[in-house]
Amino acid sequence: MPGRSILLVAQLSPPSGLIAARRVGAFAKYLGRLGHRVTVLTSRTSGKGPIEGATEVVRTGDALATRLNWRRGHFDAMTGGGESGYSPPSRLESVVVPDLAVGTWLPFVLPRALSLARKGDFDVVLTTSPPQSAHLVGLALARRGLPWIAELRDGWTFEPPRAAWPTRGQRRLDAALERKVARRASAMIGVTEPIVEDLVARLGGRAVLVTNGFDPEELPAAEGGDSLLDPGRHSFVHTGRMEAARSSPVPLLKALRRVRRESPEVADGLEVVFVGALSAREQELLAADDLSGLVKVAGWLERPHALALQRAADTLVIVTEGPSRSSVATGKVFEYLAAKRPILVLGEGTEAARIVADAGAGLATSATDPAAIAETLRRVVTDPLKVDGRDEVLERYSYPRLVERLAALIEDVL
């Protein structure tokens, strides 16, 4: 393929440690290695500095990075800063359509994108959401004749990552924006099969699947134990945020109490370790006295340590919302696969559960039924899961292969 000039528009990017930023970083890194010229247009909220593979990084203003953002402590807590937990979503998120970035970031990024398009010689623009307002940049550039690919890392009106709009007018406006993007974009990307199927069947969009993945160059060089884990217990490890992804540890915690009450000998042989930023409510839930000895909170860890901990776990845990958002399969799923440790998915029937089963990497149980979760925990402790470890399945989800698929889509669009 010839080298192409690509404008990648994403609010989050490296050096931010959020999963969306790591996907953007992988796109830039491996598109660059394929000989493409990538300009990343992003927000200053993600930090400073170059991005591997990008020929240019343009960081715009963003009200989230100013004193106007009275919730900066919340954002810092989500990315591992400070000791206080992050707070629930702002009430303004139920007001502004399609999202708050239309007011905090769009006024900065849109004029900069138009300026770059006038001065540059881009072959294609790739916008990625959330926030969905990033696609308004794509709409503006498409009107000027630039081929445009719109990526949805979550569904928009289909199983959205936010609460339902309170008014009919908001719902109609949100749906109208989604339809406009689907009709105007040269192509769309969904990160899971249900999102792709919805884009095609409901909106008539041209959509392809490019899943989340893992970067093989980030994997720890060697396996080994970890001092955070008790070698005398079966360690279930969960890494990442829960409430920010609209999932909850409550059913799992109820299950642990049930195991302790009904099978104390099993409870004495297990621990659940939570790694990553927690909300203030989650901090309170996990600190309950009756969970002492069963639950361990490691807090936020540097990424290499977190990845090493995944590889040291006896079982890795994924907590989902269950049927209400069955289309979700975050980057954590693929990091877990790369760790080659058994995976327990709380969420039967979800895309995460399907991917884990297809890889022969674990099992799934209910996301909401404490009795079913408790029974699964007992089963796993007494008869530990085995990993099939099919390398050809794992290779499918490595970012070098995924970016080859993205590059093929770009070429097809052009």
Name the descriptors.
Rossmann fold; globular; seven-stranded parallel sheet; about 425 residues; about 40% helix; alpha/beta; 13 strands
Describe the structure in brief.
By secondary structure, this protein is α/β, with parallel strands linked by helices. The chain is built from 16 helices and 13 strands.
Overall structural class, as computed from helix and strand content, comes to alpha/beta
* Radius of gyration using CA atoms only: 21 Å
**Architecture of the largest domain in CATH?**
3-Layer(aba) Sandwich
Number of strands: 13
- Termini separation comes to 11 Å
Largest sheet: 7 strands, parallel
- Could you tell me the mean pLDDT? 92
Under CATH, the homologous superfamily of the largest domain reads Glycogen Phosphorylase B
Using the alpha-carbon principal axes, give the shape: globular
Any overview of this molecule?
It is a single chain. By secondary structure, the protein is α/β, with parallel strands linked by helices. It folds into 2 domains: 5-213 and 398-413, 3-Layer(aba) Sandwich (Rossmann fold), CATH 3.40.50.2000; 217-389, 3-Layer(aba) Sandwich (Rossmann fold). Helices cover 39% and strands 16% of the residues. It contains 16 helices and 13 strands. The strands form 2 sheets. The protein has a 7-stranded parallel beta sheet, sandwiched between helices. Strands 10-9-8-11-12-13 form a 6-stranded parallel beta sheet, with helices on both faces. Helix 7 (193-203) links the parallel strand 6 and strand 7. Helix 1 packs across helix 16, helix 4 (106-119) packs parallel to helix 5 (134-142) and helix 8 packs across helix 14 (370-382). The longest helix is centred in the middle third of the chain and has 17 residues, at 168-184. The termini are close together. The mean pLDDT is 92.
